[in-house]
Every structure is written in C-alpha cells, then in structure tokens.
Amino acid sequence: MEQIVINGGRPLVGTVEVSGSKNAALPILFATILTSDICTIENVPEISDVSLTLEILREMGAKVKEIDKNTFEIDTREAQSGRSSYELVRQMRASTYIMGVELGRFGNAKVGWPGGCNFGLRPIDQHIKAFEALGASYENANGFISITSDKLIGSSIYFDTVSVGATVNAIMASVLAEGTTVIENAAKEPHIVDLANFLNTCGASVRGAGTDVIKVNGCKKLHGCSYAIIPDMIEAGTYMIAAAATKGKLKIENVIPKHLESITAKLCEMQVDVEEDDDFVIVSYGGKLVNVNVKTQPYPGFPTDMHPQMSALMCLAQGTGRITEGVFENRFRYVEEFARMGASIEVAGETAIIEGGKPLNSAPVRAVDLRAGAAMIIAGLSANGKTVIYDIESIERGYDNIVSKLKALGADIEKIEV
Ligand code: EPZ
C-alpha cells in the first residue's frame, strides 16, 4: 500500500514538462488494432492506464515492444476479437474502446462491462446507438457485451448527449465501414482531433474532428504509421492551479495554449498571472486570489476533469465561489476530503458553494478518484504541516511521475510504501 506524504506551505517554483495526453493516448493505442499493421506511438505518458491498455492489447494478440518509456511499437497483425479479460477490462472506463476497434476491424466485438472512476452512472447507450446505426446488433449477457454485424454500412448518427467515448467509438467503428458516416453533436475535445489525425496518418478519411459534425469516409484498409501524442491539457491545467495555490511561479512547457484557454481565462478572473507563448505558459500567483463561479462543460468549456483541482483553489480564494458540474451526474466525492482539511463547501444539487479565504489544514485524506487525488495533492501543498494521501493508485492512473515532477519544483513530497 503506498501513500503520498506532503509537508506543505512551500511555493512551487521552476519549470515542468507536460507529458502526453492520457485521454488521447488511450484511444490511439486501442486504434492501432484497426490497422492490422505496425504502428510506433511516441510521447506516450508513463501512467498505469497506459500499462493496462498495453496489457489488454497483448491479450488481444498484438505484439507490443517498448522502444523507451514513452515510445511503443505495436504490431496488430495477429490480433483477434473477444480475447480481452474481464480482470483487466473492468479496471478502466477506456476499455469501452475495445468495442469500437474490434467491431471496426473484425465486424464483431466481445468485452466485459467496463468500469472506471465512479462519479455517477456511466452508461454506454450512445456508444450502442452508434454501433446500431452502422448496422450492428448488441447483446448484454452475463456481464459481457457482444456486438455482431454482417457488414458495417456508413450512416448518420446524431448523439443525444455530447460524449467523448461515444464519439471515439463511432469514429473507430466507421473508418473501415462501407460508405460515409456523419456523426453529429460530436465531442470536440483535442483528444478527438488527435485520434482523427492518427487515423488519417494511417490512411483513413476523418473530416471535421474538433467540430460537432464529423464525417468519416470508410476505406478498405489502414496501414501502420509513426505518431506522437499531443500534450495533456489536464496535466498542464493541474500544474497551473498548483502554482497559484502555493503562491508560486511555474513555467509549464510542452503545452498547446489553445487547449488551455478556458482554464487560463478562469485563472485570470481569479487575478492569477498567466503569460502564454507558443508552447509554454508561465503561471504566477498575483498577490491575491479572488473567488469565481465555474460551470464545467464539454470542450471548449471549462473541463470537468479540472473540477476538483479548481475547487481546491477556490477554497483558498477570497469570497464565495460556486462550481457547477455540467457533465457528470456526481463528481463531488472529493468534498468530504476537503472538509477534513477545514474547507467550507456545501453541495446543493449539481453545485458546490465554496466559502474561501482561509488556509486549508493539513490532514490525512483519500484520493477518491484520479482528479480528486490531484486536488488533494494541491490542497496538501498549500496547507502548512503534514498531509498524508491514501489510495494513491488512482492518481498514478493519469499523472506521469507527479511526485518527482513536484519535488523538482521545490515541494516537500514523498511517496512511501506502508
Ligand atoms: C472521457 O470519459 C474521459 N475519459 C473522462 O476523463 C472525461 O471526464 C470525460 O470524457 C468528459 O470529458 C477518457 O477519455 C478515457 P463522456 P467518457 O462519454 O468518454 C454521459 C479523466 O479524469 N454519457 O464524455 O466516459 C455520461 O454519463 C477521465 O481523465 C451517456 O449518457 O465521458 C456523462 O454524464 C474521467 N451515455 C457525459 O455523457 C453514453 O453512452 C459525458 O461522458 C456516454 C456518456
């Protein structure tokens, strides 16, 4: 059992390099199954969700060779459908992508019902809607999802709700279908664009990614390619908030500032200084923090994956702030952990009302999910005294070497084996 121990109250100062995007790497690694060739994927983050994905690819029959800790050569010639194990699949929501790639490549798919962070129901009805629109049929028996089709035919799909996963699966299931597929009310996240760019580098024809209408012209076959993953906008945003929360100054390198616009705008509203350049931002505490109202929305709105981290900063800001969760049913499990640190947060429906303006107290807390865990680290870094964070495996799912990166910025932080 591992814990993170922080002696907080010290400003973060220095330069940090952002790693590849988790939410782009996972779909792109699964999408190599569609090429039946060899792909080299670069700038892959060193996180446990990636290790799990590579293990699942091996179960599916792919050969995975580690070139270095961020580069993998994946040979999917021998891959087959229906071979992933429930033991692995159940650990990660991104396992839903197995459905899209197996259906796209083989015309059928079989996968255990996926798990993942538990913030409310995480249905897959929109994924199924996309598969059925392409002519596939779906059955859910004994905890396994089976999808079969004689031939996938391009079609029109209009999503009832904006869904990153369903948009990813609709693209992956349709790239090798016969004819054209039009996906409307599609998610516009940068990782959708990255997936489309990867597939187009493999010879696919995916147009309009990044807008809410994506057109996929099916092709016969995809070839392999070499491809580098975009930087992780949520990791970048997490360090931006950590700089402000610890009254520090950070140069955050290897970012795409456009992807950070909603985060930058909100931090500037709070009187945080943010300087932008081509591929880095410099974030510094501006002498005070003024509270704000935030509503999480699909991209380009304020990201739901920045919700707990922003709440940590709002606890420290002067005045009352409100953060409304506009994407998931319930992403407030972090609130009780903040309460242990003396925060005054009241949840009313899908809004948390935060009375800020006083420091947080160090305390033993839990990382209840990936982004809540990051928020606990930010809170511990800002609080004087010793904070111990339990259940840190959820943090390791999505943050590449966060403890060593923070140590290099002056944090007194350790990961200990208990
Ligand atoms: C992806 O999850 C991300 N995960 C999440 O990041 C992220 O929070 C989320 O997108 C939103 O940006 C990965 O990319 C691996 P959704 P996903 O489908 O695809 C509802 C992190 O911290 N919905 O966009 O599962 C759903 O319940 C993780 O990195 C349906 O109703 O999210 C939710 O309310 C956490 N039916 C909303 O849509 C469906 O069929 C958005 O979910 C699918 C989704």
Numbering strands along the chain, what is their spatial order in the largest sheet?
21-22-1-23
State the shape: globular
Number of extended strands: 23
Strand content: 25-35%
Description:
- By secondary structure, the protein is of the alpha+beta class.
- The chain is built from 14 helices and 23 strands.
- The strands form six sheets. A four-stranded mixed beta sheet has the order 21-22-1-23. A four-stranded mixed beta sheet has the order 2-14-16-15, with helices on one face.
- The longest helix has 13 residues.
- The site of ligand EPZ has 27 residues, from α1, α5, α6 and α12.
Write the topology of this structure.
Blueprint: E1 2-8, E2 13-17, H1 22-31, E3 38-42, H2 48-59, E4 63-68, E5 71-75, H3 86-89, H4 97-106, E6 108-112, H5 125-133, E7 137-141, E8 144-148, E9 156-158, H6 164-174, E10 180-184, H7 190-201, E11 205-207, E12 213-217, E13 226-228, H8 233-245, E14 249-253, H9 261-269, E15 273-276, E16 280-284, E17 293-295, H10 307-316, E18 320-324, H11 335-340, E19 344-348, E20 351-355, E21 364-366, H12 370-382, E22 385-390, H13 393-396, H14 402-407, E23 412-417
Parallel strand pairs: 2-14, 3-13, 9-10, 17-18, 21-22
Antiparallel strand pairs: 1-22, 1-23, 3-5, 4-5, 6-8, 7-8, 10-12, 11-12, 14-16, 15-16, 18-20, 19-20
Helix pairs in contact: 1-2, 1-7, 4-6, 5-6, 8-10, 8-12, 10-12
The chain binds ligand EPZ.
